[in-house]
Design a protein that fits this description.
- The protein contains 4 helices and 2 strands.
- It is an alpha+beta fold.
- A two-stranded antiparallel sheet has the order 1-2.
- The longest helix is centred in the middle third of the chain and has 20 residues.
């Protein structure tokens, strides 16, 4: 992609609904908000699932949490709160992206 091209952000509606231990929603109103992300979260999720970087049952939780945090950090990376953390997160992302999917046994 040429440097002058802009990547269009992806937009998401996030809903967090409290539940009991069996997964039945309680009567608390859900937390709902809209976000934009520079990545397609579903594409990132598929890559992480293929790489087996974390157990498949935890991959959505991992990616959604990580990408929500990173998007806020990108916007505020020069703020004192995030300055010390930013280099570590950038390194973490490089290591995560370097994980290859496991070889398929014949």
């Amino acid at each position: 992609m040429a440097r002058s091209e802009q990547v269009m952000p992806s937009h998401y509606a996030i809903t967090v609904q409290p539940t009991d231990a069996s997964g039945v929603p309680d009567m608390t109103a859900p937390l709902e908000f809209n976000v934009s992300n520079h990545d397609d979260l579903f594409a990132v999720l598929r890559k992480v699932q293929a790489s087996e970087a974390v157990p498949r049952s935890e991959s959505a939780e991992f990616i959604i949490g990580l990408k929500l945090l990173l998007e806020v950090m990108i916007r505020h990376r020069k703020d004192a709160l995030f300055q010390d953390l930013w280099p570590h997160m950038a390194d973490f992302m490089k290591r995560l992206k370097a994980i290859s999917p496991p070889a398929i046994a014949d």
